[in-house]
Sequence to fold (333 residues):
Amino acid sequence: MTAGETAVAVAHPNIALIKYWGKRDERLVLPVTDSLSLTLDVFPTTTAVRLDPDAAEDHVVMDGVLARGEALRRATAFLGLVRERAGRRERAVVDTRNTVPVGAGLASSASGFAALALAAAHAYGLPGDAEELSRLARRGSGSAARSVFGGFVVWHAGDPDAPDPDRASYAQPVTDARLDAALVAVVLDEGPKPVSSREAMRRTVATSPLYRDWVTGSRTDLARMRAALRAGDMATVGAISERNALGMHATMEAARPAVRYRTADTDAVLGHVRRLRAEGLGAWATMDAGPNVKVLCASADAERVAARMREVTDARVVVARGGPGARLRRVTT
Ligand code: DP6
Fold:
């Protein structure tokens, strides 16, 4: 692209059913384990990138506010990586708009860096297919690698002994899944989280006595989940998701100092999900780096599950289904 043109990309958040929790390489953002997620059809991020040959610095606006501090540092470091790969020097003007609360464990960094990776790669003329884009997005935020693709997606941790570990870690769509699933988000708290997921996972890996066992369990969980997705077995997919998420939270609660994202409201929603199951309605909970709960269920049950959630909480309840991968919306001059 030439100066003055604007690349606009849209990406959706994803929710992991088998979680990514822990890096083996901080700089390259290489995870300890494989993870598996569903890209959603709600809360998209739209990001516009334009090159400015006269600018001395990158200019990043997030939701109408000039980015500063850590958010600016991460965006600028990411743009620096794209420039290095593209062999370009121009600084960028970035305008990004989220429809999901930022930093509340609703995966804004996944949609954010997937959209930025696609728009920036296009603006700087960086070639590459979607797998390559997932490697790039990974460097911004690990979970962003998965938002490059739609539907169910697996992110390979990659062989630590591979000659090029960066190449070995990328995301791919799960093409043989035969399940129409939904995630009903119960948004208990839209505020930023007390500890960033980056810091929380660092602390967990370094200090939690439970971490090693969760890693081993996660490998088994992933293999079983892939088989259950192929078989269209909602109950098994749900059960594995819930125990993988609860296990991840247990590892961080055992870290020193402990990281606790769950609140009394979270536990009340988890109890309600268990009650729905006892009544015979297929619903399973998953939580990320925040107090919010996402309830996994068959797509056909989503409205019923949402209605039952609204009976017990005043929180915002949003029904999400499988959504698309990151895509370019337009390039304008
Ligand atoms: C709990 O991808 O936000 O949502 O790579 O440090 O940016 P960084 O972390 P991030 O972590 C997501 C953690 C999680 C689980 C998941 O999405 O797999």
